[in-house]
Design a protein that fits this description.
Helix content: 40-55%
Radius of gyration: 17 Å
Structural class: alpha/beta
Number of strands: 5
Distance between the termini: 36 Å
Strand order of the largest sheet: 2-1-3-4-5
Number of helices: 9
Amino acid sequence: MSGKNDLDKLRNTLSFHVPEKGSWKAVTPADYPKFMAAAKEQAAKGAREGGQPIGAVVVHLPTGQILGRGHNQRLQRGSRVLHAETDALENATMTGEAGGPPVPDNLMAECGMFTTMSPCPMCAGACAQFGLKLVVMAENETCSHGEFVLAHFGIEAVNLKDGEMLNTVNAWIKGPGASTWDNPELAVPLRRWIADEPGNPKGWVPS
């Protein structure tokens, strides 16, 4: 989607909050830190709630609009599936605000995911499910379990190697998260799946 007519069609028929002519700007790598800052705000929200400091935003790449925001809620809500990325996908609307019309799947394919941690296999699979072409992560030293899924589906993965976010996560792991992060009931099945299942290309293991 690159032409004015396409943008007008979105604005008129789908209530998409597209900036007026001349003010919208396609996302470039120079913009990645700005969107990562929005994901960090979500990570801080999760930490304030007593959860894991992991956040994400869904961004419409042709216009630079943030359509969905989310944070990990595994601990707060006892949810197995509300990771930051899946929460952001669930919350994505055409206006970028709660209660707006959901983003149609064909437009979701024009979006990118900005997440403070490299996505797990479930979240990487969710990005693939909706056709996202780009995943930008703050860091992947604490988790890289899903990156072979991104590679398998041809999703561009960009690691910003954000030391500040890495320090934040490591501080949580050594502090409030000490009793949950390395819980064998969570970690062992995932690591076994990554190492042993036939879907793992060429014996890829987390770095």
